[in-house]
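Before relying on records like the one below, remember that each one covers exactly one chain. Contacts with other chains, cofactors or solvent are not represented anywhere in the record.
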Amino acid sequence: MAKVERMAAEVPVPTYAIDDQTAIKVVDGAVEVVSEGHWKLFTP
C-alpha cells in the first residue's frame, strides 16, 4: 500500500488501490466502488 500511496502522490487525478475482491463501476461519470475486500482512494 505504501508503494501505491507514493505513486498516487505523483498523479494529478484520484487514484484507487483495489484488491481482487473489488471493482470500480462508472455510470454516466459517477464512480462507485463495489467491494467485499479492501480498497483506498487517494486524492491529489
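The chain has a mean pLDDT of 94.
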